[in-house]
Amino acid sequence: MEMGFNDIAKQCLELYGYDYTKPVEERFIGFDFNKSAGCASKGREALYIEDNKFTADFLKANPHFRFPGGSIGNLSPCWGKNKKYHLEGGC
């Protein structure tokens, strides 16, 4: 199972000693949430990097998906060009 944002946050809370068995009022006393938040931020960053790597690999293998309409073979020749001042005279 792939870890999501909540799983990463829970794992970091447990790593730094957050005790779920105590009453709610006592859980917050003396617990340093800054360390836990830093841990969770690093975990989410790793998750984003992994996701971006997957997307980059997909686009490298399928470059036609980079442009609107490219996935269905309907790529506009004017996409990304200034239509008003185009050298060939407009699209």
Structure commentary:
Helix content is 48%, strand content 0%. α1 (5-15) packs antiparallel against α3 (33-61). The relative contact order is 0.09. The mean pLDDT is 81. It has three helices and no strands. By secondary structure, the chain is mostly helical. It has one domain (5-72). The chain has helices spanning 5-15, 24-27, 33-61.
User: Which range does the strand content fall in?
Assistant: under 5%
Radius of gyration: 24 Å
The count of domains is: 1
Number of strands: 0
Characterize the largest beta sheet: strand count, sense, and whether it forms a barrel.
none
Between the first and last Cα atoms, what is the distance in angstroms? Answer: 49 Å
Query: Uncertain regions: pLDDT < 50 for 5+ in a row?
Result: none
Q: List the secondary-structure elements in sequence, H or E.
A: HHH
The shape is: elongated
Integer average pLDDT: 81
Q: What is the number of helical segments per DSSP (H or I, 4+ residues)?
A: 3
How helix-rich are the residues, as a percent range?
Answer: 40-55%
Structural class: mainly alpha
